[in-house]
């Protein structure tokens, strides 16, 4: 399986098949085929929700620390 290099970075050819690609706007990752972009974006959203939850916990802790001081 030898990939053929082309001028366009949005299409790759492997064994006489053209695969369309997409680029993630958030991190710049290239996805081949395009169907992998949706799960990739879902992972970004999941990670952002986790970070927001952790930030809420820290804000809560700091606000209580100020109350005791």
Protein topology:
Blueprint: E1 3-4, E2 11-14, E3 17-20, E4 22-23, E5 30-31, H1 37-68
Antiparallel strand pairs: 1-2, 2-3, 4-5
Polypeptide structure, described:
The structure is a single chain. The protein has 69 residues and is of the alpha+beta class. It has one domain (3-68). Helix content is 46%, strand content 20%. The protein has 1 helix and 5 strands, in the order βββββα. The strands form 2 sheets. It has a 3-stranded antiparallel beta sheet, with no helix packed on it. A two-stranded antiparallel ribbon has the order 4-5. The longest helix has 32 residues, at 37-68. The N and C termini lie far apart (66 Å).
Can you describe this structure in just a few lines?
This protein has a 3-stranded antiparallel β-sheet, with no helix packed on it. Strands 4-5 form a two-stranded antiparallel ribbon.
